[in-house]
């Protein structure tokens, strides 16, 4: 009897221990890239099937009117900070404009401060070098890429915790595998997983398993021109759904489903002409079609099934909402633009008056529960005219004026702390490793980018020793750094001598090996791309350079040329050599 009581006591302790470990729910946030509101079967798309994503809405809640920004980086910044993107000085999608100010507190910082294990797997797009890198923004683990797009989705060069590594298979499957591994490893601890998928953003690459269905399909129901771009996008969305299903299945296998919040959304409107519920606009637009995103969320233990939230909400609301749901402390010292939507998720139907602001380049608009007003002075009744076909500003001048005032007021307010002149950090005290890609460099003379879109580009057409590649920046952590460049070199051009210099210190290295792989991606692309194709670049260790603290120009030039050209350049890495 005494032995039996001890066993019962031990069992009770184990149960209590498991409950205590899961006192706070786990969180998985899935963010897709360029997937429109209409790219889901649950929203009425009759040409595709997304049962696993749809199941999240059935098991939890679907937001009817959820809004993001017109393009990638601004939306991601708002999710991470709970604040409009201009407040954190995010203004573009490349060349430094995608970086979140280093003094912002992120949602990962918040969860980490509450003893969560944190990880991000996928496309970051809010800064590469420290202090902007994901490992510097609250994420214990990062695997993916930091640029706005990537040039190859099949086993590409990626990074893990700021170290370059090879990818393993199709990129979305790979990111999901890494997320599953992390969840299995941390199943006994509360975890926060951010899964920013890279598709259906171009390049339009997708394994045959998904492509064949749409390549053979001849009974499309959507009233738009069907081309390979559209087919590939739908195939990519079904691959995403497959991977969401894998995640949900793993949560079931680990008995974590009831204790895990799963949230799914996209970062902007569709990246092509396809069915989107009749809404006007697409990616880059401040109309409904460019801003309205799917948002579904489940937490079987707390959120009632099949709930529809009709209150307008935005990506700025997710930080305070998740903090409220998980009972974790908001640690941002700056005022948030978002607010908690917990009450609406749990059953409250009160419709509060509020406004949601959108901006991209010179275009802007503002939305309340019923209307949208844009910077062209046009007013639309979204509840009755989601296609924004009829301007009613003259019919309702007082409403138009009220919304115009609110738009102008918000514009002024969010821009007051905007800072475009942040230093480009070459090295930082918190990281011994720094990556300086071609994307962030400038060049002189005959040198050309492989595409006008910088994110995954390289420099080529290097013909003379008069020209060079350079970074205007600041060394914040002085020391000795091992410098490695990633290059290609045509046969007959080897023998060139390169020099890397900064503030009077320099090193030299000879390009002794020709390495001239072909451009790749064409065979995998299902439609021609506008971004750069890629190559397999070879590393060249240039030696150790001393970098002294301060501002200056880091310059890569050729001292000697042996053939008609020099090299194509993709990336420079700097690794601090500890004494």
Automatic annotation (TrEMBL):
<dbReference type="InterPro" id="IPR024607">
    <property type="entry name" value="Sulfatase_CS"/>
</dbReference>
<dbReference type="Pfam" id="PF00884">
    <property type="entry name" value="Sulfatase"/>
</dbReference>
<keyword id="KW-0732">Signal</keyword>
<protein>
    <submittedName>
        <fullName>N-acetylgalactosamine 6-sulfatase (GALNS)</fullName>
    </submittedName>
</protein>
<dbReference type="InterPro" id="IPR050738">
    <property type="entry name" value="Sulfatase"/>
</dbReference>
<dbReference type="InterPro" id="IPR000917">
    <property type="entry name" value="Sulfatase_N"/>
</dbReference>
<feature type="signal peptide">
    <location>
        <begin position="1"/>
        <end position="20"/>
    </location>
</feature>
<keyword id="KW-0378">Hydrolase</keyword>
<dbReference type="GO" id="GO:0046872">
    <property type="term" value="F:metal ion binding"/>
</dbReference>
<dbReference type="GO" id="GO:0004065">
    <property type="term" value="F:arylsulfatase activity"/>
</dbReference>
<keyword id="KW-0106">Calcium</keyword>
<dbReference type="InterPro" id="IPR017850">
    <property type="entry name" value="Alkaline_phosphatase_core_sf"/>
</dbReference>
<feature type="domain" description="Sulfatase N-terminal">
    <location>
        <begin position="25"/>
        <end position="327"/>
    </location>
</feature>
<keyword id="KW-0479">Metal-binding</keyword>
<comment type="similarity">
    <text>Belongs to the sulfatase family.</text>
</comment>
């Amino acid at each position: 009897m005494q032995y039996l009581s001890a066993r019962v006591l031990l069992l009770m302790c184990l149960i209590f221990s498991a409950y205590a470990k899961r006192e706070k729910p786990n969180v998985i946030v899935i963010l897709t890239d360029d997937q429109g509101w209409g790219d889901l079967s649950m929203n009425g798309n009759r040409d595709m099937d997304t049962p696993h994503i749809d199941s999240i809405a059935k098991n939890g809640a679907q937001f009817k009117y959820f809004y993001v920004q017109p393009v990638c980086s601004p939306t991601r910044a708002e999710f991470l900070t709970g604040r409009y993107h201009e407040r954190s000085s995010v203004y573009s999608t490349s060349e430094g404009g995608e970086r979140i100010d280093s003094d912002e507190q992120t949602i990962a910082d918040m969860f980490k401060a509450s003893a969560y294990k944190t990880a991000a797997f996928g496309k970051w797009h809010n800064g590469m070098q420290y202090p902007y890198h994901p490992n510097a923004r609250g994420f214990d683990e990062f695997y993916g890429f930091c640029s706005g797009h990537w040039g190859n989705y099949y086993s590409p060069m990626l990074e893990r915790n700021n170290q370059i590594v090879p990818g393993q298979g199709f990129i979305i499957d790979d990111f999901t595998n890494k997320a599953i591994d992390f969840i299995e490893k941390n199943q006994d601890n509360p975890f926060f997983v951010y899964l920013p998928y890279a598709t259906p953003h171009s390049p339009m690459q997708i394994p045959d398993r998904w492509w064949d269905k749409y390549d053979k399909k001849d009974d499309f129901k959507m009233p738009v021109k069907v081309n390979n771009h559209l087919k590939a996008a739908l195939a990519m969305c079904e691959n995403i759904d497959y991977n969401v299903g894998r995640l949900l299945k793993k949560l079931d296998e680990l008995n974590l489903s009831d204790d895990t919040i799963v949230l799914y959304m996209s970062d902007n409107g569709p990246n092509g002409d396809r069915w989107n519920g009749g809404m006007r606009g697409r990616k880059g637009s401040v109309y409904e079609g460019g801003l309205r995103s799917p948002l579904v969320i489940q937490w079987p233990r707390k959120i009632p099934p099949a709930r529809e939230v009709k209150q307008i909400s935005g990506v700025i609301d997710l930080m305070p909402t998740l903090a409220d749901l998980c009972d974790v402390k908001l640690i941002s010292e700056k005022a948030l633009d978002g607010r908690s939507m917990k009450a609406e998720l749990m059953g409250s139907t009160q419709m509060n008056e509020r406004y949601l602001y959108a901006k991209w380049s010179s275009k802007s608009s503002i939305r309340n529960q019923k209307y949208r007003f844009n910077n062209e002075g046009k007013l639309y009744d979204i509840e009755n005219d989601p296609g924004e076909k009829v301007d009613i500003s003259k019919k309702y001048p007082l409403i138009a004026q009220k919304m115009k005032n609110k738009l102008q007021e918000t514009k002024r307010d969010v821009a007051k702390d905007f800072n475009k002149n942040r230093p480009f950090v070459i090295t930082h005290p918190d990281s011994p490793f720094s990556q300086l890609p071609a994307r962030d460099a400038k060049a002189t003379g005959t040198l050309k980018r492989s595409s006008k879109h910088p994110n995954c580009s390289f420099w080529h057409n290097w013909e003379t020793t008069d020209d060079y590649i350079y970074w205007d920046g600041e060394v914040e952590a002085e020391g000795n750094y091992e410098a490695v460049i990633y290059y290609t070199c045509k046969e007959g051009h080897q023998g060139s001598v390169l020099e890397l210099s900064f503030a009077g210190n320099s090193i030299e290295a000879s390009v002794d090996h020709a390495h001239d792989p072909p451009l790749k991606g064409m065979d995998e692309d299902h439609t021609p791309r506008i971004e750069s194709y890629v190559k397999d670049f070879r590393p060249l260790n240039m030696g150790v350079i001393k970098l002294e603290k301060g501002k200056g120009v880091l310059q890569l030039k050729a001292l000697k040329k042996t053939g008609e050209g020099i090299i194509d350049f993709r990336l420079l890495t700097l690794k601090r050599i500890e004494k």
